[in-house]
# Entry
Amino acid sequence: MTFVVTEQCIKCRFTDCVIPCPVECFHEGPEFMVIDPEVCIDCNACATECPVGAIYQDKDLPADQMVFKDINRRLSKIYPQVLEKTNALEEAYKWRDVMGKIHYLNASLDDLNSEISA
Ligand code: SF4
# Structure
C-alpha cells in the first residue's frame, strides 16, 4: 500500500508533509505534491501534517479521488524530489478550501501525456 496526495493539494502545495517522511518519497510539481508509491513505506507520518487534508492511504481514497493514485505514480517519475519544506504557493490560503481543482493540473497532465507516449 501507499499514501496518495489528492486534489486538495492543488494550488496550495504547503509541503508540511515532507518534514516527517522518513524515506524522502515526495516530489514537487508546479501545482501540487505527489508521493512515489515505490518508495512510500506506508508509515502514515505525513497525512496528519497536511493542513488541507489532501493525503490518504490508497485503500481509503474517496471514489472521486481514485485517479490520483495513478497521477501520483506517474508524476513522481517526472517531478523533482523535494527533501525540505518549501514556501506554499502564493495563493494557497485562497485555494485551500476550494474543491474541484483537478483541471488546474493541465500543465502537469501535458507532462503526463508526454510520459505516456515516451
Ligand atoms: Fe512518507 Fe510515510 Fe507518508 Fe509514505 S506514508 S509518504 S513513507 S511519510
Q: What stands out?
A: The mean pLDDT is 91. Helices lie at 67-75, 92-95, 106-117. The two ends are 27 Å apart (CA to CA). The chain has one domain: 3-117.
